[in-house]
Amino acid sequence: MKKEENQESKELCRVDPDSLHTFLKWVVSQDLQPKIAEFVKTLIIEYDCQTSLERSLCEVIAISHGRLISTSKLMNEDFNLHYPSKEKIQYLSILSKELDRENRNYLTAINTLIEIKSPKMTINVNTENAFLSQNQQFNNNQWKNENIKD
């Protein structure tokens, strides 16, 4: 028993970029594993992931997506309540919270990967006064009665 656990922990700690998806069997249902593994491969190719951090983020994205699908499936199966008992309502409440959590994990991981893979912006400003802010919007709507000079 201890040898099996030790072997599993060694396999868990080993990071091999060529053999991905070792964690899928522990967190995603068996019927979704091939599709989630394919999704991981697609993300890695699409975002040109080279480092282990980027590859692990792709796995987190795919696992969260798989859990979203699984939780949605469970909710849909139990949503048609023929007899709305207190236990079923509590169960749906737990599933709803789980769905929200997985959606948040999914979106956070996607945004993190996009941020990592986006090119860095370099700005050189040669002036004494500079006002830089985030999310600025420039409206260039010229009305007939406005006198705007370049």
Description:
By secondary structure, this protein is mostly helical. The chain has a domain at 15-117. The chain has helices at residues 2-13, 24-27, 33-46, 52-79, 86-117. Helix 3 packs across helix 4. The protein is flat, with a radius of gyration of 24 Å. The mean pLDDT is 79.
Name the overall outline. Answer: flat
Mean of all residue-level pLDDT scores:
79
What share of the residues does DSSP label as strand, in percent?
under 5%
**Gap between N and C termini:** 78 Å
Extract low-pLDDT stretches.
Answer: none
Estimated structural class? mainly alpha
Sheet having the most strands: none
SSE run: HHHHH
Could you write a compact summary of the structure shown?
The protein is mostly helical and 150 residues long.
Labels describing this entry:
single chain; 150 residues; mainly alpha; 5 helices; flat
Helices and strands in order:
Elements: H1 2-13, H2 24-27, H3 33-46, H4 52-79, H5 86-117
